[in-house]
Amino acid sequence: MAFFIYFCTMDKIKDFEVCVFEGKRSWYELLLASVFFSIFIYVLILLFYNTYFELTLIGFLKRLAATITIGSFSFVKGLQFSATKNMLIDLDTNTIVSRYIVGPFTYDSKTIATEFEYVSFFKNKDDSFGSNLWYKVNRHFKMYTFENEESVRKFSIEIAKKLNIDLLDATEKGNSKWIDKTDL
Prior knowledge:
The longest helix is centred in the N-terminal third of the chain and has 27 residues, at 27-53. By secondary structure, the protein is an alpha+beta fold. Helix 1 (27-53) packs antiparallel against helix 2 (57-82). It has a 5-stranded antiparallel sheet with strand order 1-2-3-4-5, with helices on one face. The chain has helices at 27-53, 57-82, 149-163, and strands at residues 4-8, 17-21, 84-90, 95-102, 105-112, 116-123, 129-135, 139-146, 166-170, 177-179.
């Protein structure tokens, strides 16, 4: 998945912000999402049909349990294949906005940080790599997860450059190394 990091303006009132855009989903992910959302809508219609025409309580409860299980699974999988996450950082107020987008719907989650200290990248337990933005002594914001070390390294270097903060390489457990700003 491609990431785009740059300075941008939200509107004419605010100063520059760092924006990280995850990019668009591939065609096969959107196709799978549409299949799962279609199953979810079919299950909803089936639920209303069964509610209207089912005569016994036991039969209704069995069908209700099955439709809720299948419907919730389909809805969650549809979200996984269609959702994207964008991150906006307001440098004046030290606000981090995580914007989750599914089609025309958006949800913003705001985190207030006192002062950004450094960016770290590390290896997760499941052999993926993560990147965190640290602030206020021991608090951090989980930014993104990547499949390989090169991608997380490039991403973390770009964020450290844009925010003018330190960078910590924590890919080896117990052997964290600060990366010198002049090497960036």
